[in-house]
């Protein structure tokens, strides 16, 4: 050990007793003082060597772990990030939302000073809480040009189903995090305006009399009904992709969502009916939400049944808030400035504008404060954000429906189509009758 220390240039190891190393001369000191000095110096060098060895050891473990993870993730680059909670920062950022009456922006001084860890490199990112050793945030970034042509075509065709859905269903205007913010002590305010558009497909508690649960209705127009009838039966393809990709991003989270939905009998957002004679019963997340048109919201926790939330983000062309929307090779996330997904609880997030292709995120929506920051899209472009969840209201609604054992207490896809077709037919007949009366008067 002393040879190793001396090799590092320890000036105290080879001194004669009574000598003190100096700049070109030696000074006299007591033997006991010299021995104490030598022991302290040698301990420092031993501690440093031990720390260096531990660093090499842990780096070896980390490198080995990365190799194991990359083999499990089929060769994807795996990045490990160790994170911890920032309770004081969260208070500060919530106060900024209240003060500014708008969602956070990556250019805000509060965010710049917080210096979050932004993820944007292709591959898998696993964020591990240093206190609990749990994965609390996970991201997969898959550039389109790194997918096989078959995988790219299938993925984009499946996501196009969702973009088409957005043209057929009404906007959700009751999402509290989009409308405003609440301080950690309940001092809530409304934003000066809502940012972007939110829509949804799946099952929710019904607002209609004597009904427990319902699917989201189409817009009351003939064009929307046509699209609704065309795309809703394709949703099982969407649900299958979301389920499979969640299970490959974070297997335990995917398995838990599937197992809990099966145990509770939660209908997948893709199921057209609760009637097993007409629709295969495939439990999964009951709700899928879609956001676009520079959507942003406040730091919040979700009101869901459990903490698992998972979603996909991508960029597309846009002819306006009602579409049509399509994938274009020239349009990617860099067409939209800002819009970071931010996990404020752990001061980490995704910088979409530096990402490419498909971005997937797992987060603990019920436990950790998170938000989508403000963004600005180039003309003719938009960024889509989606999430699948088992909502608490959905669980309550399906329980109420099961307790009544009355199939008439649900409004499924078939009833939505029949009811709207009937209404539109009545409107059409009234307009025709009015046109005939006007023609007679002329």
Strand content: 15-25%
The count of strands amounts to 21
Question: Helical proportion?
Answer: 25-40%
Low-confidence stretches: 1-27
Largest sheet: 11 strands, mixed
Compute the separation of the termini in Å.
Answer: 111 Å
Average pLDDT reading: 87
- How much is the radius of gyration in Å? 29 Å
- Derived from helix and strand composition plus strand pairing, the structural class reads alpha+beta
Number of alpha- plus pi-helical segments: 11
Q: What does the overall shape look like?
A: elongated
| Domains (count) | 2
Pfam families: 2OG-FeII_Oxy_6
InterPro entries: 2OG-FeII_Oxy_6
Biased composition (Low complexity): 23-32
Domain Tet-like 2OG-Fe(II) oxygenase: 179-375
Brief write-up:
By secondary structure, the protein is of the alpha+beta class.
Describe the 3D structure.
- This protein has 442 residues and is of the alpha+beta class.
- It has 2 domains: 2-72, no CATH class; 79-422, no CATH class.
- Helix content is 39%, strand content 23%.
- The protein contains 11 helices and 21 strands.
- Strands 3, 5, 6, 9, 10, 11, 12, 13, 17, 20 and 21 form an 11-stranded mixed sheet that branches.
- A hairpin with a 6-residue loop joins β1 (19-20) and β2 (27-28).
- α5 (149-166) crosses α8 (235-249), α7 runs antiparallel to α11 (413-441) and α8 crosses α9.
- The termini are far apart.
């Amino acid at each position: 050990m002393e040879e190793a220390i001396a090799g590092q240039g320890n000036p105290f190891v080879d001194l004669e007793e009574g000598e003190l190393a100096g700049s070109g001369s030696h000074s006299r000191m007591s033997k006991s003082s010299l021995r104490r000095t030598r022991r302290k110096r040698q301990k420092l060098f031993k501690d440093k060597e031990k720390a260096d060895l531990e660093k090499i050891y842990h780096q070896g473990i980390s490198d080995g772990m990365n190799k194991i993870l990359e083999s499990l993730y089929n060769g994807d680059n795996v990045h490990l990030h160790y994170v911890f909670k920032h309770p004081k920062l969260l208070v500060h950022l919530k106060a900024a939302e209240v003060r500014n009456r708008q969602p956070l922006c990556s250019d805000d001084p509060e965010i710049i000073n917080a210096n979050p860890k932004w993820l944007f490199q292709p591959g898998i990112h696993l964020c591990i809480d240093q206190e609990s050793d749990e994965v609390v945030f996970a991201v997969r970034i898959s550039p389109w040009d790194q997918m096989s042509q078959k995988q790219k075509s299938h993925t984009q065709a499946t996501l196009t189903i969702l973009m088409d859905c957005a043209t057929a269903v009404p906007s959700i205007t009751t999402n509290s995090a989009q409308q405003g913010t609440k301080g950690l002590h309940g001092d809530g305010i409304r934003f000066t305006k809502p940012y972007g558009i939110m829509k949804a497909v799946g099952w929710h508690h019904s607002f209609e009399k004597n009904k427990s649960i319902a699917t989201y209705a189409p817009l009351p127009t003939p064009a929307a009904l046509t699209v609704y009838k065309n795309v809703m039966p394709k949703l099982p393809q969407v649900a299958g992709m979301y389920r499979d990709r969640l299970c490959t991003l974070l297997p335990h989270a995917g398995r838990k969502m599937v197992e809990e939905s099966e145990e509770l009998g939660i209908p997948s957002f893709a199921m057209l009916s609760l009637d097993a004679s007409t629709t295969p019963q495939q439990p999964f997340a009951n709700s899928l939400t879609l956001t676009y048109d520079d959507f942003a919201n406040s730091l919040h926790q979700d009101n869901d049944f459990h903490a698992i939330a998972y979603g996909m983000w991508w960029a597309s062309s846009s002819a306006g808030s009602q579409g049509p929307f399509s994938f274009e090779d020239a349009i990617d996330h860099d067409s939209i400035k800002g819009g970071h997904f931010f996990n404020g609880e752990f001061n980490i997030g995704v910088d979409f504008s530096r990402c490419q292709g498909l971005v997937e995120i797992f987060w603990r929506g019920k436990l950790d404060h998170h938000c989508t920051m403000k963004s600005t899209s180039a003309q003719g472009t938009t960024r889509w954000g989606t999430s699948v969840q088992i909502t608490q209201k959905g669980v309550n609604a399906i329980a109420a429906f099961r307790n009544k054992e009355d199939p008439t207490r649900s409004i499924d896809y078939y009833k939505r189509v029949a009811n709207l077709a009937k209404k539109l037919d009545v409107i059409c007949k009234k307009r025709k009758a009015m046109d005939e009366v006007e023609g007679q008067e002329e």
